[in-house]
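sry for the spam today, last one i promise. struct tokens for design, 188 residues
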């Protein structure tokens, strides 16, 4: 059993008969009253994010997890297939377990969080950013650059991202996986 002083980003805990991963936390010590920890928890089974507050010293049940590198192979509907980069074992995961399934390109290496006691895959962590090619976008209109103007673009995985007007079809762009936003153009 751990306590609230052991809370950190990425820690997996059991809460309300479900397994959660701590995304954000903040220790709060008000001038009046006891200290507490404000957390943002993501369910590893449903993907739902909830806010929760633990009082200081509250006991929490920690889940022992391991991380393994897997390569994304292909998808069939809502099922995604991955291969372990060490022993070449293949696993299939449902779309709900993935953070940004629309940004996954075949061959991409991701980190899979596995519960140590029963080898059950709990979550998939994407790299911080991915580089994808723009397959379709409308040409930018000249003179429409008074502010940070953007236009929709479709990338090779089928995801839609807002990009600056100077991005054209065939350009490679870097996209953050956390928010699915354009970061920069990659020079070839």
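last one done:
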């Amino acid at each position: 059993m751990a306590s609230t002083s052991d809370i950190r980003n990425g820690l997996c805990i059991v809460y309300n008969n479900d397994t959660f991963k701590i995304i954000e936390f903040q220790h709060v010590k008000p001038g009046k009253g006891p200290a507490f920890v404000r957390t943002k928890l993501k369910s590893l089974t449903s993907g739902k994010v909830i806010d929760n507050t633990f009082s200081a010293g509250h006991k929490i049940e920690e889940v022992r997890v391991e991380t393994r590198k897997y390569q994304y192979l292909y998808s069939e509907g809502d099922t995604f297939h991955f291969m372990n980069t060490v022993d070449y074992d293949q696993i299939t995961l449902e779309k709900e377990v993935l953070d940004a399934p629309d940004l996954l390109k075949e061959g991409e290496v991701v980190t899979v969080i596995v519960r140590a006691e029963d080898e059950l895959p709990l979550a998939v962590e994407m790299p911080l950013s991915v580089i994808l090619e723009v397959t379709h976008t409308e040409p930018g209109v000249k003179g429409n650059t008074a502010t940070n103007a953007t236009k929709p673009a479709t990338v090779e995985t089928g995801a839609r991202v807002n990009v600056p007007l100077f991005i054209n079809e065939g350009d490679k762009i870097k996209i953050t996986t956390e928010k699915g936003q354009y970061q920069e153009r990659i020079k070839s």
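The first strand starts at residue 2 and ends at 3. ok im logging off now
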